[in-house]
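Ticket #209: bound-state structure for protoporphyrin IX containing FE.
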Amino acid sequence: MTNFLCFRYNLNLYKTKKNMLPLKEAIAEKHSLAEKMPFNQRMFKGELSKEEYILYLSQQLAIFDSIEKDELPHPSLNRSRKVYEDIKELMELENGESIHIKPLDTTNEYRKYLNGLSKEEKLPHVYLNYLAIMFGGQMMKANVPGSGKMYEFEGDIREIAGSIRAIQKDEWADEANKALDFNINILDELQNVSESARIEAEGDGGEGA
Ligand code: HEM
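RESOLUTION: The complex was predicted; output attached.
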């Protein structure tokens, strides 16, 4: 009986590997969920206030900072400095003035997770977070406050994206989907913060009227 179960188990493993979906298809369902998150939709339609977008950028900075502790497949992928420049521009900071970022709880959860991964284990998160900026992000650039340096890459963008394409594996599906889950949670918390702020502002307005 044990042998039979063992045999079936091995057979299933073989089948799973052989029938593995291409990575892009394996993340399609959760990508669609992420795309439809209300905060993302508002960003896409150019409806975020400057403050809301700064809060979003702060989460991006916290994520990129964790990932970029290790070397990326291409030096032009590095985003931390670009995101920092965007925040500086939007907050109208003078040179030398520093910013203090307090990541949201969901971002801290993702950072904690990322910080426990090796350079190799982080690669599906590189795929997910950096191609996100290179694809959907390019459509965001025109609709967000400020000049959107986060979406600008120095050099040939095909070559830069190609450095991820060259190493990506279908076996990354579970980890890339996990990365999407973390991102979905962050987008959800961002929307909750926006709604709480709106309700508070309406409350203040009501009292003053
Ligand atoms: C309104 C929001 C979004 C839009 C409009 C959007 C749109 C797109 C589009 C058009 C592509 C290219 C698909 C193709 O090759 O035909 C793409 C790819 C991708 N997006 Fe998004 N996206 C959005 C949000 C996100 C988010 C939140 C993430 C993750 C944080 C993400 C991660 C990715 C990844 C990893 C790819 C590359 C998939 C692959 O080709 O392997 N996207 N997106």
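RESOLUTION NOTES: The chain has one domain: 22-208.
TICKET STATUS: resolved
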